[in-house]
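User: Please run a holo structure prediction.
Assistant: Happy to. Please share the sequence and the ligand.
User: Here you go; the ligand is dihydroflavine-adenine dinucleotide.
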Amino acid sequence: MALRDFFISLSENEAISTAAQNYGFKLGAQHIVAGANLQEVIESVRTLNEQGIACTIDNLGEFVTEEATAIQAKDEILALIEAIHSEQLNAHISLKPSQLGLDIDIDFCYDNLHEIVEHANECGIFVNFDMEDSPRLQMTFDMLKELQKSFNNVGTVIQAYLHRAKGDIENFKDSRLRVVKGAYKESEEIAYQDQLEIDINFLELIEYHLTHGLFTSIATHDHNIINHVKYFVEQYNIPKEKFEFQLLYGFRKDLQVELAREGYQVCVYVPYGEDWYGYFMRLLAERPQNINLVTKRVFNK
Ligand code: FDA
């Protein structure tokens, strides 16, 4: 089994995930998770805002199978929206539909999302639906389309590894979109497996949305992609207000600050909460060197 597959299978293992939470088996995850609770994450966001960096905040959790757990997650996100609003933070929400009950019942999930988006809309806050693995993709797009009939403060993510991505980005060109390479294990029938093919598609999607779309979040730690985007926006006179670079909390902090100093909009994806295990394992899956980042900090404390 390849290392990537090994970590992805660990990310989906419920028993280990529960054990990790229950026994506080932190493995250094605190360096890439911005806090265990609302109060802690607010402090982390404030610090980033002071450096001229915006945030998208994710209350960690996914693949929920109990209604009560999904409702608890919804209530936490509503409280987070309140906090962003009252503390006047430069931040918006990222969420995973499977945390809000997508695997239980789509109508139940839709109602939860509706409540969140409606409240965020009242507070002038944007909500982004993270894109999960392919079985959840069309349902996520369908719920988004329905919500966009009433609200314009909601968008999602386009994954460049998917063959269908160009059609999807065209379909949602009037939305604010985050474009990424894609983090899940998908079959060759539906997804590019070759890194170069993914990178080429990634750049084409970014260029399309920069020139045809509403607002583009370019979410990557790849300096080659970032440098290409810098060159492209210059060539096509794309104003800096029309796009931002997004990076994950704890990753390439130097680059985050450097981009902000150069005058680009930078937004950091800030995860918080107890349910960090799946997120953490996917990060190890996609870049095993990430384990160095974590272990070095654990042992150099
Ligand atoms: P990738 O991992 O392909 O690395 C390319 C090169 O960049 C490396 O070879 C190295 O040179 C450099 N590099 C990368 N990381 C580095 C580091 N830490 N330090 C130094 N150099 C580094 N996925 C998804 O499916 N759904 C989603 O909703 C999201 N959301 C999301 C939000 C944000 C803000 C980000 C940054 C990413 C996501 N993703 C995601 C994950 C995304 O799909 C992808 O899996 C990861 O970002 C990894 O791909 P990269 O483009 O970062 O570079």
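The domain at 34-275 is CATH 3.20.20.220 (TIM Barrel).
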